[in-house]
From TrEMBL:
It comes from the Bacteria. This is Ribonuclease D. The gene is rnD. Residues 1-145 form the 3'-5' exonuclease domain. CDD domains: RNaseD_exo (cd06142). SUPFAM superfamilies: HRDC-like, Ribonuclease H-like.
Length: 338
């Protein structure tokens, strides 16, 4: 399976096309038709049908938005390839070339998939996106079985489907903006307020978050306390696409006193020398284990998850299961010094 969707002017992806291959038959399904979602839903949710997809995280979101359903169980060929030691983040084109010896064209990557009728070139491109998934799956499944890593892939794919189905907004979006590190605690709290408001407004209006307020404008508003609405207007005037119609609401949002709950939120900051040393030691442990397994470091454990582990003392959910089993022993002496 694969999808084509459009997300340039909306918060939620607009599902335009669903490609399905069964045996030697390829179906291109017009997902813009209202009756299609109900027809696809039973197959998407059938636990007895394995859905083979490539790099499926955005496709899962598209299915959730377009069909109110998330495919499960899923076999993600990109993750499977990485677990087999073929490389990190391989594109479908690279994987087809590597495993099937076929070079595909990229021509319609930026195509308008909501237009009707589709062009012959679009139809050919869309069909190619699923044409080789079955032979790729067969090869990867055999390799995973030989390595004893089938359960690893099943766990990762199940977590991806669950995350798409849950669709929970980030409670601390300020942590993902790297440029906020120089901000003091109160400025980070103000930034978090702005970003939470932005997320809620983007969802409500189904508009891209950057259309509500971009990161630079939010950062400028949060940097220092704003005592007068004229000061807020002066900042907004430097950003032509800033939400001037929401000026009163933004002023009230920034002016509100900080409460005790907000003072307990996690904050971004520059780690001290000891914390940097521990992070480096954890990264070296990850690299050593990844080299032993023949998998990419980032697939095994990312820097972000190591930082979370050091900051909170808790293993993040993504590291539960097989990753924790592999890493806990080498992490233990490093974490003991924290």
């Amino acid at each position: 399976m694969d999808t084509e969707f459009v997300r340039e002017r909306t918060y939620f992806p607009q599902l335009a096309l669903v490609q399905i291959v069964i045996d030697d038959d390829i179906a291109l399904i017009d997902a813009a038709k209202p009756e299609v979602a109900a027809l696809l839903k039973p197959m998407l949710e059938d636990p007895g049908i394995l859905k083979i997809m490539h790099s499926c995280s955005e496709d899962l979101q598209a299915f959730k938005a377009g069909c109110r359903s998330v495919p499960s169980p899923v076999f993600d060929t990109q993750i499977a390839a990485a677990l087999c030691g073929l490389g990190a983040g391989l594109s479908y084109l690279k994987l087809v070339e590597q495993l099937c010896g076929v070079t595909l064209e990229k021509g319609e990557t930026r195509s308008d998939w909501l237009q009707r009728p589709l062009t012959e070139s679009q139809r050919h491109y869309a069909a190619d996106d699923v044409r080789f998934l079955m032979p790729i799956y067969a090869q990867l499944q055999e390799r995973l079985a030989a390595l004893g890593r089938e359960a690893w892939l099943q766990a990762d794919c199940a977590r991806a489907s669950a995350a798409a189905a849950e669709e929970r907004p980030d409670a601390n979006p300020h942590l993902s903006i790297r440029s906020n590190q120089p901000l003091d605690a109160e400025a980070q709290i103000r930034l978090r307020r702005l970003l939470l408001w932005r997320d809620a407004r983007a969802i409500e209006r189904d508009k891209p978050k950057r259309w509500i307020i971009d990161n630079d404008a939010a950062f400028a508003l949060a940097r220092a306390p704003i005592a007068r609405i004229e000061d807020l207007d002066a900042i907004l005037s430097r950003y032509p696409k800033s939400p001037k119609s929401a000026r009163q609401h933004l002023f009230a949002l920034l002016e509100k006193p900080i409460d005790a709950e907000e003072r307990r939120i996690p904050l971004a900051g520059e780690p001290d020398a000891a914390q940097k040393a521990r992070l480096k030691a954890l990264q070296q442990a990850v690299a050593a284990k990844a080299a032993e397994l023949g998998v990419p470091d980032g697939l095994l454990c990312s820097r972000k998850h190591l930082e979370y582990l050091l900051d909170t003392g808790e293993w993040p959910p993504v590291l539960a299961g097989w990753r924790r089993e592999l890493l806990a022993g080498s992490f233990a002496p490093i974490l003991a010094t924290a």
